[in-house]
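FIELD: query
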Amino acid sequence: MLENDIVLERFLASRGAAITDQEVAMLDRLLDMTDNDLWDLIAGRVEADDESLAPMVRALRACSDLRPDLPSMRCVGYRQAWEALDAAAPADTLTAAQ
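FIELD: result
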C-alpha cells in the first residue's frame, strides 16, 4: 500500500543508521501484518494488540501527514481515537460516545 510505503520511507530516512535492533524487531513484527491492518494502526483506527509495539506505531505516525485537524480526521471518531492512542484523552473516550 502506497501510504504505508511513504510512511516507512520517511521513518527510515529520518532514523537512518541510528535505527536500533529493538526498532528493527518491532518493524519486522509490524511488517508481518497485512497492509490494511498496518495502515489502520498508523492512521489510529485501531490499537496494537501488543502494547510493546506502541512506541513504533507512534514513531511511524509521526512520519505521516495525518493530523487531527484534517477534515477526514474530524469525522467518525478518528480524532478521538487519535487522542486516545496518544494518551491525550482517556481510553474510555472511545466507548463513551457509542
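FIELD: remark
The radius of gyration is 14 Å.
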